[in-house]
Fold:
Amino acid sequence: MRIAIIANDSNGLYLFRRQLISALIEEGHEVIALTPFDTDVDNLQALGATLVETPIDRRGTNPVRDYSLLKLYKKELKRIKPYLVITYTIKPNVYGGIVCRQLKIPYAANITGLGTAFEGSGMLRKIAIVLNKTALKQAKVVFFENTENRDIFVNEGIIAKEKTHVLHGAGVDLDHFSYQAYPINPEFHFLFIGRVMKEKGVDELLESMRRLVRDGKCCFLNILGNYEEDYKEKIDEAVKEGWLRYHGIQPDVRPYIAACDCFVLPSYHEGMANTNLECAASGRPLITSNIPGCKEAVVEGSGVLCEPRDVDSLYQAMRTMIEKSREEREQMGRIGHRHMEKVFDKKQVVAETIRHLF
Structure:
């Protein structure tokens, strides 16, 4: 059968969905991916997928551009004539879902996070509810990465609960992110991997680091990721102060995970933070927000939860982690690794996904 996958990023599609694509192809399905061409285009093709370029203004709200995207999806899906469509992230879910309804193509949507639209109670939330309700009305199944996001959609009347299924995020590849021996560092190394933007808690993270340095704690922060917003001046200033090392986007994050003492992600909202799963699988303790999509990665003894948007809470969590012994942190990493093996194994997530698609 011919299956179309609609995504907003070829890099993310390869990093987090390549095992699903491979499994579908191994079962004899033809997979066609509609996605912007960022990176990993050749890698996706090497899996056996056919790619169609569909540019997206990911964070834009220009209705003209979004209507053009909807028309492009309609044109391509009419040409492809898939048996099933799978969509990922907000705009592919909304505009891909609307087109599938119009063309009467079975489709499955993946809610990988709610974004800022659902944080408040104003007009933006109302618009998001209407768009999602319109797009998902005829969906075969809607996958969620945490139960709280699912409950919001159900309580808002966007989708019936019986048409939903909660996965353990995208899962984590335990072969790729295998356990790494805990490092012996002369100073404490925190690690942040993600988009450098306000919603990831970067402001609170930078301020907490400054407090720790003022307190005389010998620690450094390593940041991997691209600038999603205008943070270059803040990052450059912190680098000059000597406690921040900015590495930009890295094709392989594993050496940085192996070298760190603790991973920290003080995000405001997530579907399921893949970086938490990857670092826990590698045997590193976590500091992350006490929110849906982050807290699931932490079990008792594997990390510390902090309150989002709260510098004091984050600072205290980071200080607590520094003041633990190396042996205590190593044990935390082992507990977290076992949790990933038990709950978040990507092989289990892929098999569960396929069972609910057909």
The two ends are 11 Å apart (CA to CA). The chain has 13 helices and 13 strands. Residues 188-343 form a domain with the Rossmann fold fold (CATH 3.40.50.2000). The CA atoms of residues 8 and 316 lie 37 Å apart.
